Amino acid sequence: MTGPTTGSLRVNGATLHYEVRGRGPLLLLIPGGAGGAAAFDGVADGLAADCTVATYDPRGISRSTLDDPDAEQRVAEHADDAYRILELLSPDEPARVFGSSSGAIAAVHLLSTHPDRVARLVAHEPPLVEVLPDAADHRALVARVQEAFHAEGLMAAMTVFAAGLTRGGSAAPAEGGAPQAPRLPPQAAARAERTMANLPYFVTRIVPPFMSHTPDVDRLRALSDRLVLAGGQDSRGELAYRPAALLAERLGTEMLHFPGGHTGLTTHPEEFGELLRKTFSA
C-alpha cells in the first residue's frame, strides 16, 4: 500500500500536520502522549481498507508547529483543532472518531461541544482524573512531576509519572525507580525514540491542563449512545483506566476492553486495530 497523503492546516495559533489514507467515510484518529500521528502507523493502513483514515500531530508535537512556542495549552483548543480537521475532511457528514490517552480527553470534549460532527467516539483510557473520588491525590502527582522536571530533569519527571500511572496515581515513585517498560517491536521502538524530543513539551505543557480538565458528565450522559469508553485488558486499576471505568458506570454503558495496557495500540497493533474496526462497523 502506498504511503499516506499529507497536508497542513492553519488553525488558531498553530499549523497542523495531518495524514490521510483510504477512501470512504471518515475515521479520525486522535493521538495522545508525545508520539503524534506515528502512534497509528501499526493500524492505519488496515483500517483504511474500509474507510478514509485521518490522523495528525497535535499542536506542538512533531510536525505541528506553534506560532508561539510558549503558548498555554488548553483542552478546548486541542478539541477545536480536531473539529477543524473534521470540517476540512468530512464537511457534509459526521465522522467516527478514536482518541487515545490525552487524545481521548480532546475527543471527549469534541463530542461534548460538536456532537453533530461525531457519529461515534471510542475513547481509550482518557486520564480524566478529576472525576475520581481521590482526584486530590492525582493533582499532587501532577505537581510532583512538574517539580521533578524543573529540579532534576526529564528522566526524573518521567520516573515519577510512570510510577504514579502504574500504581494508580501515588505521588511517590516506586522503590528502585520507574517500573520496567514493556519490550516493544523494533518499529515501535524506533517510533518511541522519535518521541523523545516531544516529551518535555508533553510533560510540562500537556499533562497539567489535560489532567486537570473536568468533563461535562451530564452532557456526556445525553450523548452516551455515541460514546464508547474503553480501557486495556492489562491496565485495570491503573490511573488512566479508572476514569473510563467510572464514567462508563455513571453513564450506564458497557466498557470496551482492548488488548494490552495503556499502550496497547503500540504493543498489540493487529489485535487492537481489528477490534477497533469491528467496533466502528457494528
Automatic annotation (TrEMBL):
Query: Please, one GO biological process term?
Result: glycerolipid catabolic process
Q: Give all residue intervals belonging to the AB hydrolase-1 domain.
A: 25-137
Alphabetically sorted, this entry's keywords are:
Hydrolase
Annotated GO MF terms:
triacylglycerol lipase activity
Presence of keyword Hydrolase: yes
| Spans annotated as Disordered | 169-188
Q: What is this protein called?
A: Alpha/beta hydrolase
